[in-house]
Structure formats: C-alpha cells, structure tokens
Amino acid sequence: MAAFHVPVYFDYLATFSWALSGAIVALRKRCDIVGVFVLALLTSVGGSILRDGVFLQRTPPVLTDPVYLPLITAASLLVALLHQRIADLPVVDKLVSTIDAIGTPAFAVVGMQLALGAGIPLPGVVLVGAVSGVGGGVLRDVIVREVPFILQPGQFFALVVLFASLVFLTLTLALRVDTVLAAWITIGVFFIARMLTIRYNWQTRPLLRDG
Amino acid sequence: MAAFHVPVYFDYLATFSWALSGAIVALRKRCDIVGVFVLALLTSVGGSILRDGVFLQRTPPVLTDPVYLPLITAASLLVALLHQRIADLPVVDKLVSTIDAIGTPAFAVVGMQLALGAGIPLPGVVLVGAVSGVGGGVLRDVIVREVPFILQPGQFFALVVLFASLVFLTLTLALRVDTVLAAWITIGVFFIARMLTIRYNWQTRPLLRDG
Amino acid sequence: MAAFHVPVYFDYLATFSWALSGAIVALRKRCDIVGVFVLALLTSVGGSILRDGVFLQRTPPVLTDPVYLPLITAASLLVALLHQRIADLPVVDKLVSTIDAIGTPAFAVVGMQLALGAGIPLPGVVLVGAVSGVGGGVLRDVIVREVPFILQPGQFFALVVLFASLVFLTLTLALRVDTVLAAWITIGVFFIARMLTIRYNWQTRPLLRDG
C-alpha cells in the first residue's frame, strides 16, 4: 500500500482552484470580505471535511497541514483585489468552469486513495470519491440557499465524476498503473469529458416532464 | 451486552423504505436520475451518517456494509422505472407516510442500541435515537430547500419518536424484554400511534398565534 | 498541559444563553414546542457538535455530559412559558444580542483549548475556535432557511471573533497568563468590542456595489 499515494500537490491545486471559485460566487452574492473567505473555505475544503470528519474519522487536513489556510486566504485576497475586474469579465464564468473541471477529479482521486487505504470496499470507495469531488460545491450551494447543482437537471457532471472514478480504480487496481500517472490520466479524462459536455451542452433530463 | 443486538435487517428495511420515499420526493422536484439517487441516498442513510460520523465516531455502515448502496440504487431505479405511475397515483402519498412510519422507529431503535453499546448516558441515547430516526428526513428537507418538517407545526411526529424511544428503553432496560421483541414492539407502537395521528389529523400548534 | 483548562461552567453558560437565543428565534418563526427545542439544541450545541464530531473526532459533550440536555430543555421551557411576554418586548432583541456576545467568545475559548490539547497547529486552532463560536448560529440560519449571518455584510462579528481568538492565544501562549483569567479577559474584550459595534453600528461592506 505504500506505493499507493497521490502527491499532496494534487490536493493543493484543487483546494486553490475551488477556493477561487467559491470566492467568486461570494463576490457575486454581494458578500463582504468575511463572506468571501468563508465561502472560499467551505467550497474548497468542505469536501475533505465531509470525507475525513464524517466518513473516515480522520482529522481534516485543513487543521493539521499548515498550507491550506494560507492558500485559501491567498485565493480570497486575490479575488478581493481583482473584484472589479472579475465582476466585469464574462470570461470568468468559463474560467470557473475550467478550474472546477481540474479541481473536482483531483479531490475525487485523493478521496478514493484515502478510502482504499482505510480498507473500505469498492462501492464505498466510489462514494467517498464522489463526496470528496462534489461535497464542497454542494455545501456552498446549501449555504447560499441555492438548490444544489447536483440535484438539478443540467449538464452532465455527477455522471462524469462517477465515470472518472471508475477509470481511476480500473487503472490502479486492475491494470496496476502507477498511482500518480493514473491520477493525471483521471484528471485528463474528466477534464476532456467535462469540456466536451460544456461545448456541446449535453444535458440530463428530469424524469417527470411538466405538461 | 452481547445479547443486546437489533438484527441488521431492521436497518435494511428502514433504508430501503426511506430510499423509496427520498426518490419519490426527488421525482416530484423534477430531478434527473442523479438527483433521484442523491436524494434517496441522503434520505435513507443521512440519519446513520450523522449518528456514526458525527455523534459516535464510527465509520458509517453505508461505506463498510456492501448491501446498502445496491439497496439504495435498486430503490432509485424502481422509482425511476415506475415514475409515470407514481406521479399519477394519489395513493403514493399514503404509501410514503406508511413506509416512513416503519422506517423511522427502525432507525431509532438501531441508533439507541449503538449509543447504549458506546456507553452514552440515557438522555444522550434518546438524542442519538431521535437523530437516527429523523436525521435523513431533515437533511432531505434542507437540501431541497424546504423548512424541515421537524420545525413546522403539524401532525405529531417528533413527539411520537420520543414516546417510542422511551417505550424501547423501558422494555429493554427496565423490563429486560428480549431486544428483537422490544424492537418489533417499538416499531408496532410507533406505527399505530403514527397511523392514528394521520387518521385523526392530530396537530401541534405554534406557541405564538398570528393576529 | 494539565494547567491549560477552561472550566466547564463557561460552556454551560454559553450553552444556556445560545439555547435561549435559538428558542426565541423558533418562537418568532411560529414553531411548535418541538421546533423550539430543536432550534435551541442546534443553536446551542451545533458549534460543539461540529467541533468534536467533525473536526476533532471526539464524542460531543451533549451526549456524554448529562448537564447539557436538561439545560437546553430548561431554556426551551422558559421561552415557551414566557412566550407572550417575549413576543411583545422590544427589549428582547437587545437581550439576545447581549447573550450572544457572551456565549460566542466562551464557545470560541473552549474550542481553542480543545484544539490546542489535540496538537493542532495555530491557524487550525483559530479555525476550530471560530467554528465553535459561530457554528451553532450558522446551522440555525441554514435550517430556518436564512442566509447565514456570517455571509452577509452587516455589523462586524466574525472579525471580532477572530480578534478575540488572537487575544486569547496571545495571553495564554505568549504571555503565559493563567487560562481561566485569559478566558475571562477574552470574553470581556469580545463583549466590549461587540457592544461598541452595536452601539455605533460599525458595518462591513460588500466588495461589489450595485449600480
């Protein structure tokens, strides 16, 4: 099991990108600097807090690793400094989607690795991966009182997370691909699938139609 | 303490019934298949995730027992397959209330058994039982942005959970009734009390009246 | 580390005051007696449940210490008994703000003490203190479907919590002041800062202005 290890910079990368995305949402919700930081924090480490605090009974790394809080503070300050620019640029929405498309699979891969290490059976590993990947976004939506994106019909997202999780588990467990390589491939697969979904606007549908 | 054990099929039964009920709510909220599964999952194992992950510091069984996720997937697919039928039948509301009236006390009994096993004092045991019984429903309401049923005046529910919890603790701890028998009696008591509440529409009232 | 100990009555005091404040909010939201108790419970021990159940992997004291549940029940019954009076008095809003100004730093101090005892590094200690201090209020807002006060521009609150946390850590860790004395000084500093904020209505502003 010693070899099965996703480097911590995957987690730093994902945390910074989700913190930016949470801070931008806070900006648009007319929050003050505290709200920007709180939403950056919840969006970026909410998934790992659920993963560790609720599912795996570990102390969440935001408490034990001194890198996370400065990273989230930096993302919050960056967004606060550039706030006029960010509010004006229509390119920002595209940027947020793009960084989410990197951050989500990175979190999912780290979550699956920890769940495997804790001896959780495979269906549970996928669940922990999915919660790690989308948990922060769901908490963000709940706290700003929006229907969580995961419950709404729209562009494929959760199914892409599920697909990427299966790719990662197949690569590492069945094909014995090196974990770091498998993690990068998974992030690549998710990123491409997600960009295609956005480009062609592939949508899921509610099971019940109106009318 | 070895004899004090509620069989796991109580938990499977309650999980399946609450998963159906969560999936039906998702259907009516115009969710897609992902939303139906997410709401079935949260409604059915939300209580046990709070119980284990937050209160008792155990790994939630949805991760460790490979039965739960297939059970919840099956309930989601069943509701998805029958969706037109379910949307049309007025009998479904009654069915959901009925299965909730079985699932709630089953979860409460399992929760109390685990809390007793962890050496929690009696008031805490009742709290863990109540959270196990109503937690999934509260999380479901929060995530679909409704005021949680437990906060709203309406038909007696939480007080019936409290009453059933006291029945279970009296039977097992004071009267030394066999745990499995006590669990079935508790479920029966809750079911009858709840059906009477629905039949005669017994209501609680807000402390403050308007006007 | 044995000497580093905040007496438990700080926690009882804060719990009772937040339970009153939660119960009063429930009263105004037209809840029944169950809703009043649930909101009193969530507001008063929500912060410590997050602190212990999610962050520090301890069993929350509301389960293990038999004082909390009777304390919260007493606060709920008190508010229920005096409900007509409470609804009429404009002085109640001021009273709620005042008790929150005592309860918040008391919870923050207890949280920081536990986090230090668990070997968490200083930025994490401040985070645990802040979550302990404001967590219950945030959960209360989420469950009654209001935008959490912490996200809204308005009177300084979170920044005062942060300032008080730094005061406590400076006193205990750098200046080696006795913990009980430091806790009282911290509560006093927070109380005065908060009362000044309310008196002069010091406000934070959204980063983005409308128009």
UniProtKB/TrEMBL annotation, chains A, B, C:
Annotated transmembrane regions: 6-27, 34-55, 67-83, 95-116, 122-144, 156-175, 181-202
Membrane topology, record value: Multi-pass membrane protein
Domain spans labelled Glycine transporter: 9-83, 98-171
Keywords per UniProt: Cell membrane, Membrane, Transmembrane, Transmembrane helix
A GO CC term attached to the entry: plasma membrane
Principal cellular location given in the protein's record: membrane
InterPro entries reported for this sequence: Gly_transporter
Localisation: Cell membrane
Similarity section: Belongs to the UPF0126 family.
UniProt-recorded name of the protein: Trimeric intracellular cation channel family protein
Species of provenance: Zoogloea dura
